[in-house]
């Protein structure tokens, strides 16, 4: 009996040692995203899915990288950047304009940190003004006296809306009511008649926007004046963007607006091996990644490396791109 107990004890100790070893090798990645109905949330979780697909642990083939990934819902671009700067997130999704402002120290509405690094861009993100069917709003200036949701603090939606308010010379007093709802709330608020319009910076199509367009006939308004053109001329991360008719069933006409890109951002302090494995997992499974949302359908390595990435490339990302011959 003593012999068997000793053997069992040794086996248990070996098991504990093995478990501790596996746990020590497992490294966790957190990716900041956005609201649960937005494309940021899909993008972050799609990256995690690719990382886990590549992992070899428990299988005969794959990468022995040991990374595990989570992409929780968050408040969006500027919040993600703040968390990355503080070391709380390893990566995050951010609008290309806020990536630029943050790394270059050009705005007091986002954390300024020269250590931000670009990883890759994902999808185009048009700025959208979405209005109720009977609102009578056909331009930005038609918002006078109307109830507008500008987005929650910390979101890129909020930051870009405030930029446009400044350029049009329309402060909060211009509107009948200004609300600060999140992206998971504004569509229902529009259909319930609690607001007349909301702004949103998001890839197309978007399930949250569809709640308003399919649910109560909401429309997207064209923003194609000298105000938007001046922003495009001044800032290389913006471009004129077309949303074709029919993307949503209630949208009968093409919409012209402006926008940038959703980008994946990290920090120079984040380990290069970690970023390399993230990038490798996505690009080695790019066909699978494209299939996870319609906004990703036309992604190419060239567009993902060059579009909207206004911070320097992270060394881990650059290493992979050089290995593939995509950059020098």
TrEMBL record:
Coiled coil: none annotated. Residues 1-24 form the signal peptide. It comes from the Bacteria. This is TAXI family TRAP transporter solute-binding subunit. The lineage of its organism: Bacteria, Pseudomonadati, Pseudomonadota, Alphaproteobacteria, Rhodobacterales. Keywords: Plasmid, Signal. CDD domains: PBP2_TAXI_TRAP_like_3.
């Amino acid at each position: 009996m003593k012999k068997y107990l000793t053997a069992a004890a040794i086996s248990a100790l070996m098991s504990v040692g093995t478990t501790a070893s596996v746990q020590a090798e497992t490294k966790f990645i957190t990716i900041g995203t956005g609201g649960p109905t937005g494309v940021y949330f899909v993008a972050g979780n799609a990256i995690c899915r690719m990382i886990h697909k590549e992992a070899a642990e428990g299988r005969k083939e794959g990468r022995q990288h040991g990374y595990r990934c989570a992409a929780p819902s968050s408040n969006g671009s500027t919040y993600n950047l703040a968390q990355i700067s503080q070391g709380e997130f390893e990566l995050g999704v951010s609008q290309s304009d806020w990536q630029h402002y943050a790394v270059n120290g050009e705005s007091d509405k986002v954390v300024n940190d020269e250590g931000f690094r670009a990883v890759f861009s994902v999808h185009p993100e048009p700025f959208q003004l979405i209005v109720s069917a009977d609102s009578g709003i056909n331009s930005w200036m038609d918002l006078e006296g109307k109830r507008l949701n500008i987005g929650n603090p910390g979101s890129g939606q909020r930051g870009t809306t405030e930029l446009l308010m400044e350029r049009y010379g329309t402060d909060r007093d211009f509107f009948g009511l200004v609300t600060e709802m999140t992206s998971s709330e504004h569509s229902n608020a529009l259909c319930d008649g609690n607001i007349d319009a909301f702004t949103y910076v998001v890839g197309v199509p978007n399930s949250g926007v569809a709640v308003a367009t399919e649910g109560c006939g909401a429309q997207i308004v064209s923003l194609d004046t000298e105000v938007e053109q001046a922003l495009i001329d001044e800032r290389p991360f913006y471009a004129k963007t077309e949303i074709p008719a029919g993307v949503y069933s209630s949208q009968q006409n093409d919409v012209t607006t402006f926008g940038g890109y959703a980008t994946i951002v990290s920090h120079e302090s984040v380990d290069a091996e970690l970023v390399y494995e993230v990038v490798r997992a996505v690009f080695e499974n790019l066909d699978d990644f494209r299939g996870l949302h319609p906004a990703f359908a036309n992604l190419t390595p060239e567009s993902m490396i060059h579009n909207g990435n206004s911070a320097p490339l992270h060394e881990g990302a650059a290493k992979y791109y050089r290995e593939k011959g995509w950059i020098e």
